[in-house]
Amino acid sequence: MAQYFEVHPENPQQRLLKQAVVLLERGEIVAVPTDSSYALACHLDDKDAVDRLRRIRQVDDKHHLTLLCRDLSELANYAKVDNRQYRLLKAATPGPYTFLLEATKEVPRRVSHPQRKTIGLRVPDHKVLSELLALHGAPLLATTLIPPGETAPLNDAQEIRERFEKLIAAVIDAGACASEPTTVVDLTPVGEGGEPVVVRLGRGPVSRLGL
Description:
Layout: E1 3-6, H1 14-25, E2 30-32, E3 39-43, H2 47-57, E4 66-68, H3 72-75, E5 79-80, H4 83-92, E6 97-103, E7 118-122, H5 127-136, E8 140-144, H6 157-164, E9 170-173, E10 183-186, E11 197-200
Parallel strand pairs: 1-9, 2-9, 4-7, 6-10
Antiparallel strand pairs: 2-3, 3-8, 4-8, 5-6, 6-7, 10-11
């Protein structure tokens, strides 16, 4: 049965978050709250965990997984960003946006898009997740917690535990999330002199990006 960590949304108990970090470092998968919906997260450098993450969601290697970063300073290690791209990122982070960018060599090939060599990155505006990332000391690889065959993400921690208790190691309950996926913006054309492309409209308003 998946462990259940019930934490305060604004002042999360550090001992519980540290227990979740131990599980992540062991290669386990944990359901985490974000500023858009709950997500499944795992250690970036654990191939087995990444494979299990894809199996749970029933997505192939062409489905973009997302790096959850604590702030933009971490992002530069994993994505190639020019000045204009950085200004757009700064205008919308932290927040409910996922940005597609050209991956650096620091990103394992198995987690970037196989043809495009791109990666999804985001800096969530969520106190609990931010503190979890700080304790972990590195970005986490994640995917929105949408059950296979469904279209809406889950936002109730108890339901997540009941439905996925045999597939994941833990659920961090910080209360209900917004239950709306992120806005996805492809910034790779900007690096070639083009314009950002809105791939999916979600919780983040595109007006914040000047689009």
